[in-house]
Write a sequence for this structure.
């Protein structure tokens, strides 16, 4: 059995036992013994709340570095929807994506494009939903871990559709193999992450045996280099980007708005998510069609590995989606082909990790 990977780790040399992390942990996964914090791995969901509150930076995220790119012949970066909110509205995202390529990547894929596809799939799935209500979004890996540990009775409510990150990686790998006649192992796919829970979902994924993502690099790690490169980038290619619907997934409520469901609940902030999941477990919200639960305040724009204030980033995403207001460029037929073939779906059952 593969040992479960946790992206959140403790640097004991920096810890002075202040108990900030212990008091903040939503799953009571931290204890303090002999003036040092201890993470109880069976309880940890890698939400990153301890990282936010530690004044000594003792709680950290295990991440990859750009050196890992050297292992692969063809390198692909997946840019998260969140990245749109890290720059001013007048910033040319083609320049930003070119700045990412200049870090050593051969290709940059916008996660928002995959979110567009999943938006179409969920729209159709809700029409013939046979799962218990409310259907629970599979976007936030921290919420999925929380359900496994604290609300296993709600596992059947989780939608069995891949996250935009995984679908983007799966499509990018397939396209690169076909276009450049590459073997799968020659391709390295790296996600530019906003939170530690995404890192965990890469190393020990839910719903699939193995992730199509080979590594994770945080926005914080490379943001300065992206800014510098984008400011010096010359002529850029026209990158394929997600529509306003896909980009909107980066903020709380954007996903529900994009799929066009009438009866839904959007909850951000892990403590708030716990309270509403308790209501769902008691059967009080069976009249709701869709539950969008996000561990970070504001949604993914509030991830602890972002650089911008989450409220500013959330506002930018909203304004950007309103400004563009473009339609999804992917056809419904193509999206449903990916769904019906199983390409965009989970392949494994989710196991309860209830204590």
């Amino acid at each position: 059995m593969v040992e479960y990977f946790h992206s959140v780790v403790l640097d004991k040399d920096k810890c002075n036992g202040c108990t900030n992390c212990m008091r903040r942990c939503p799953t009571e996964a931290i204890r303090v013994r002999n003036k040092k914090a201890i993470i109880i791995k069976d309880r940890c969901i890698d939400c990153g709340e301890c990282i936010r509150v530690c004044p000594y930076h003792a709680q950290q995220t295990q991440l990859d570095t750009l050196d890992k790119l050297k292992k692969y012949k063809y390198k692909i970066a997946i840019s998260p929807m969140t990245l749109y909110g890290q720059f001013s509205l007048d910033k040319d995202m083609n320049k930003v994506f070119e700045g990412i390529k200049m870090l050593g990547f051969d290709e940059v894929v916008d996660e928002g494009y995959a979110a567009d596809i999943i938006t179409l799939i969920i729209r159709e799935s809700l029409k013939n939903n046979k799962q218990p209500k409310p259907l629970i979004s599979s976007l936030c890996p921290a919420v999925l871990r929380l359900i496994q540990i604290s609300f296993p009775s709600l596992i059947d409510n989780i939608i069995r559709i891949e996250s935009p990150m995984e679908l983007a990686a799966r499509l990018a790998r397939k396209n690169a193999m076909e276009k450049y006649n590459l073997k799968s192992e020659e391709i390295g796919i790296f996600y530019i992450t906003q939170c530690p829970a995404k890192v965990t979902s890469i190393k020990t994924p839910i719903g699939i045996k193995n992730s199509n993502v080979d590594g994770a690099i945080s926005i914080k790690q490379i943001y300065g280099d992206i800014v510098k490169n984008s400011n010096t980038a010359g002529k850029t290619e026209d990158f394929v980007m997600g529509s306003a619907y896909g980009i909107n997934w980066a903020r709380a409520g954007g996903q529900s708005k994009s799929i066009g469901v009438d009866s839904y609940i959007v909850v951000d902030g892990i403590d708030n998510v716990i309270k509403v999941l308790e209501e769902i477990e008691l059967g009080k919200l069976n009249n709701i069609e869709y539950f969008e639960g996000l561990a970070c305040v504001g949604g993914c724009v509030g991830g602890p590995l972002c650089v911008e204030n989450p409220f500013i980033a959330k506002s930018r995403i909203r304004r950007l989606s309103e400004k563009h207001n473009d339609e999804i460029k992917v056809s419904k037929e193509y999206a449903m082909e990916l769904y019906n073939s199983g390409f965009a779906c989970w392949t494994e059952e989710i196991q309860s990790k209830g204590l």
